[in-house]
Amino acid sequence: VKGRATRATIALDMERDVLVFLKDSWRVAHPGCDREGDIYRRLHEHHVPYIPEFECAGDVYSGKFCQRTVTPQYAKKPWACKAKLLIHYVHYRIALGTIGVSMKHFDSGQQVCRAIRDAAEGPLSSAYTKAGVMHRDVSDANIMFTKDRSHGLLIDWEHAVILEDGIKPQATGTWSYMSLKLQTHPYVPHELSDDLESLLYVLAY
Q1: Secondary structure of residue 54 in the 3-state scheme
Q2: Which pLDDT score is estimated for 125?
Q3: Contact between residue 121 and residue 75 where contact means Cβ atoms under 8 Å apart
Q4: If you ran DSSP here, which 8-state letter would residue 80 be given?
Q5: Which residues pair with 143 in a beta bridge?
Q6: What was the pLDDT predicted at 84?
Q7: Closest-CA residue to 9 (of 92, 115, 94)
Q8: Within 10 A of 47 (CB to CB), how many other CB atoms are there?
Q9: Which pairing describes strands 133-134 and 89-96: parallel, antiparallel, or unpaired?
Q10: Would you say 138 and 120 are in contact if contact means Cβ atoms under 8 Å apart?
């Protein structure tokens, strides 16, 4: 099975008696893959606008043991099918204090354009210039409205990467919205211009 088995729901924080957005997934546990919670912390530390409020995040444990896939442990067994890469996953949950509204529920084209503008001028540009973070998965599902639909929010920083010295981010994203360059040359580095081009396809869609 390929993918992160992501599930999302609205949950109740019983200590504060408030609703939060809860995302349950299996994160890639490889060197260089930043946890989404760490990305949100970094974005908030650098005051990046138009992103959800971050509450908490962490790996899921069963007793003392972290829930993780064990398939890579058997990759070299004589009975195992040969594979170029077996991805190691860890069960992960993140809670956000902001519950957005799907951009599909728009009242006017102006609302859609404003949300896309907010994503471009806010989290995409600010995250890149201030926090050194690249989103890498811009799609219609990852841009939401605030409750009053006055602004847009860029969510789902699961594929985001921190741009350390010398790092050339690999191409990734939702295929329907990936830039032409990344679709035709998938092994070239992912750049901010690719995310901005994805916004154009979201608007067209």
Answers
A1: strand
A2: 93
A3: no
A4: S
A5: 154
A6: 65
A7: 94
A8: 9
A9: unpaired
A10: no
Distance CA 87, CA 94 (A): 21
Q: Looking at this protein, which amino acid is placed at residue 108?
A: S
pLDDT of residue 1: 47
Are 116 and 202 spatial neighbours (Cβ–Cβ below 8 Å)? yes
Question: What is the bridge-based pairing of β-strands 89-96 and 65-66?
Answer: unpaired
- For 19, the token pair is 């609703």
* Exposure b/e, 58-80, CB count within 10 A at least 16 = b: eeeeeeeeeebeeeeeeeeeeee
The torsion region of residue 36 among left (phi > 0), alpha (psi -120 to 50) and beta comes to alpha
**Position 161, amino acid:** V
Regions of the chain short of the pLDDT cut 50: 1
User: What three-state secondary structure class fits 106?
Assistant: coil
Q: Which residue has the tokens 């010398």?
A: 166
Question: pLDDT digit string (tens) for 162-179?
Answer: 998 667 888 888 999 999
Rounded to a whole number of angstroms, the CA Rg of the chain reads 18
Q: Please, which residues bridge with residue 25 across strands?
A: 92
Q: How many CB atoms lie within 10 A of CB 205?
A: 9
Check residue 29 and give its pLDDT: 87
> What is the DSSP annotation of 152-202?
EEE---TT-EE--TT--PPP-S-GGGS-HHHHH-TTSPP-HHHHHHHHHHH
Pairwise CA distance, residues 135 & 8, whole Å: 19
Query: What DSSP character marks residue 43?
Result: H
- CA gap 79, 112 in Å, rounded: 53
